[in-house]
UniProtKB/TrEMBL annotation:
Origin organism lineage: Eukaryota, Viridiplantae, Streptophyta, Embryophyta, Tracheophyta
Domain DUF7745: 13-145
Domain of life: Eukaryota
Pfam families: DUF7745 (PF24924)
Identification of the protein by name: DUF7745 domain-containing protein
Amino acid sequence: MALLRCSKFQIDKVYSRAVNMPTFLKKLMNITGMSEQWVTVRIKQKEGSKCIPWKSLKDSILTHPEVRKKVDVFALSIYGLVIFPKALGHVDEAVTDLFDRLDKRVTPILAILAETFRLLSACRKVGEGRFIGCAQLLLSWFHSHF
């Protein structure tokens, strides 16, 4: 949605969640290495989904004793703020889903491309929104795969 600047198309996503996915709380606990109480206090509701403020993640990066967890939280923050921004200054639940899947070596690339293609088609049909990503790269990928 951020890539297309078209906020109306959130229903009927191409990808689906697995049945026994851990909750947002459990994923954040696993990624950050923080306690359930620490995570629960920091979870917010923003833009229609659960999220955690970037400031809380930043504080975790600066104070966490484990270097591996610092790196994980930093990577999650980058994904949430730069690659998949939804709520300004917050990292939302969808980003933790993606990050959790990457950690398990499950690649989301096909789902992201399919979702981008679906949203591009939907935007074209209603005549609003515009693609601000690298159109040449996306076109090159489609030509090489179809």
